[in-house]
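Consider the following input, taken from an annotated entry for TetR/AcrR family transcriptional regulator (Falsiroseomonas algicola).
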Amino acid sequence: MVRTARFTEDDFIEAAMSLVAEGGPTAATMQAIARRTGAPTGSIYHRFDSRSAILGAAWNSAYASFTGALAPLLHQRQAREAALAILPWAEANPRRAAFLLLHDPVSLFEDSPPPPTQRQALDRLETAFDAAFRACIAPATDDETLARARFLIFDGPIAILRPSLSRALPPPPHAARLIADLHAGMPVAA
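Applying the prediction step yields:
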């Protein structure tokens, strides 16, 4: 008789994201993921070869969600709206937001890199997102304009969110006003 799986890859990915969001990269051990899901450790290893594999899958999942919210606006050259879209995305996805925006891949994968298939998937996501970003700021390509656009669309809004994310709170009520003021005072293109 065939047994149906009680736990899915998504269960383990979500558990890994939660653990990293709550306690940092070192909190997401295979044993902790097993405890969080209630699954035997062997069940995780049946789906993921290593800790870096599950963290790579979690990173790609969170990053795809984030870029999916912003890329359409970037393609439409709506820089301010893309920056503002980070707020509802973070509010709708607090665990993903804390996982992705409070941690960097270097800290997640300091022990070992994600498997090549996950790295290739991330490369595809990054290439598509970079194309959306470049479409938003085209035809400008000088370093100052690129730096300004990155700050206004990504770095500034994420910096506004980080204190709330680190305390597991929703975005502050004034966040949208701060982002809009940034864009009003310093347009994407000089």
